[in-house]
Specification:
Helix 6 crosses helix 7. The model has no long low-confidence stretch (mean pLDDT 87). The chain folds into two domains: 91 residues, Winged helix-like DNA-binding domain superfamily/Winged helix DNA-binding domain (Arc Repressor Mutant, subunit A, Orthogonal Bundle); 32 residues, no CATH class. By secondary structure, the protein is mostly helical. It has a three-stranded antiparallel β-sheet. The radius of gyration is 19 Å and the shape is globular. The protein starts with 6 loop residues before the first helix and ends with a helix.
């Protein structure tokens, strides 16, 4: 059996990796963060509003991603008995706890874009307005 000379550090590393991996897997893919960001910005939205707001997502993919988010208790789905049936989606209280994480990702992305494009000054002026 292989021995690990520095077991406490290995355990600490694993204890930090596992929850981070869970978060990355939960938010993985190209759409989940954008869906959450849209619901944070707009609040309750209908399915077709989400398709329109996100832009390039297909209805089939949105449906799949919303099911995954609902299964993980981040999004709730409400069906209203109208003609035709109205379905609305909103973040749960648990889903709203992702707001600081999503905001940090957005802020980092703005900084990174400015750095790469060399437009730091222009982005700061737009952000201040």
């Amino acid at each position: 059996m292989k021995e690990f000379p520095n077991v406490p550090n290995r355990i600490k590393c694993i204890s930090e990796i596992l929850p981070t991996r869970d978060t990355v897997e939960l938010l993985s893919g190209k759409w989940k963060v954008l869906i959450i960001l849209t619901l944070l910005a707009k609040g309750t939205s209908r399915f077709n509003e989400l398709v329109s707001d996100i832009g390039t997502i297909t209805p089939k993919m949105l449906s799949k991603e919303l099911r995954d988010l609902e299964q993980n208790q981040l999004v709730s789905r409400t069906v209203k008995a109208t003609v035709p049936v109205t379905v609305e989606y909103e973040l749960t209280a648990h889903g709203r706890t992702l707001e600081p994480l999503i905001a940090a990702m957005r802020d980092w992305g703005n900084t990174h874009r400015a750095r790469i494009a060399g437009r730091k000054g222009r982005l700061r002026a737009a952000k201040a307005a």
